[in-house]
């Protein structure tokens, strides 16, 4: 019996430090997350990127406890080949790369987010097919301020070929969004955006045919196992017939900013 008690005491002496160590082990500063979703169409800044056809999307993100983060995201697209005027003979993918830094102002509910975002559209572009056109690859710098469920984000194009519009350095986009929780599972989304193209080509202002505003209103519902379903209405406000013509697919005469409704299911992991 004495030997048994002695053995138990020795075992406890070894186990206690291990237990204490496990309890005080710091949480990892590294976080990896991912997402995948199926959408009835891909809407970007009020414009359909898939001509109202379904889109499969997904991304991977890394974040550090310090606030630094990087990530990548992909989706199928068709907008670059829906009209020959872009000069693309093949392009079916948008591949984004981004990185930045986010944090809060002290212990308040106010936050900030700054970073860079590269939109990359692999494919075949030919100026022989459409003289004067440029590739759509776009690099933007962005800054955002947040408060609870509200956010305001400003994106600024650092290149001269913003989404395929030549001589458009300095083009910007303002995104004001709300993601208001109605219940612990149901949320309401609302958004206003303004896309303002700068620069000119052959004396014609890019703003005169490419700038617009967009609106979004939707609902999302959180399901078990990190699934989310939802839907949203979007529309783009064009100032003139010239704007509408610029954002109309020549293949089927569909305006890409027309009122439309999108449904989706998404999984995060």
Structure in words:
This protein is mostly beta strands and 269 residues long. The protein has a single domain, classed as Porin, CATH 2.40.160. It is built from 3 helices and 20 strands. The N and C termini lie far apart (52 Å). The model is unreliable at 1-22 (pLDDT under 50).
Mean pLDDT across every amino acid position: 91
- DSSP strand count: 20
Overall geometric form: globular
Biggest beta-sheet profile: 12 strands, antiparallel, barrel
Q: What is the first-to-last residue Cα distance?
A: 52 Å
- Return the CATH topology: Porin
Radius of gyration: 24 Å
Q: Name the CATH class.
A: Mainly Beta
Number of domains: 1
Report helical residue fraction: 10-25%
Number of contiguous helices: 3
């Amino acid at each position: 019996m004495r030997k048994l008690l002695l053995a138990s005491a020795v075992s406890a002496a070894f186990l206690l430090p291990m237990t204490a160590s496990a309890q005080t082990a710091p949480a990892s500063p590294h976080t990896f997350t991912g997402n995948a979703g199926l959408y009835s169409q891909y809407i970007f800044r009020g414009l359909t990127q898939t001509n109202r056809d379904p889109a499969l999307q997904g991304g991977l993100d890394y974040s550090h406890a310090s606030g630094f983060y990087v990530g990548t995201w992909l989706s199928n697209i068709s907008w670059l080949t829906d009209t020959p005027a872009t000069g693309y003979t093949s392009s079916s993918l948008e591949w984004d790369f981004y990185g930045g830094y986010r944090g809060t102002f002290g212990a308040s509910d106010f936050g900030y987010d700054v970073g860079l975002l590269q939109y990359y559209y692999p494919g075949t572009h030919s100026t022989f097919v459409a003289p004067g056109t440029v590739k759509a690859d776009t690099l933007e710098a962005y800054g955002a301020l947040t408060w609870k469920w509200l956010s305001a984000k400003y994106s600024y194009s650092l290149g001269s070929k913003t989404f395929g519009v030549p001589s458009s350095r300095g083009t910007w986009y303002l995104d004001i969004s709300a993601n208001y929780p109605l219940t612990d599972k149901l949320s309401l989304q609302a958004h206003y955006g303004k896309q303002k193209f700068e620069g000119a080509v052959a004396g014609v202002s890019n703003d005169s045919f490419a700038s617009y505003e967009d609106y979004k209103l939707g609902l999302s519902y959180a399901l078990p196992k990190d699934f989310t379903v939802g839907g949203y209405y979007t529309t783009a406000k064009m100032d003139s017939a010239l704007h509408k013509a610029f954002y109309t697919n020549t293949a089927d005469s569909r305006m890409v900013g027309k009122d439309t409704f999108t449904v989706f299911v998404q999984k995060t992991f």
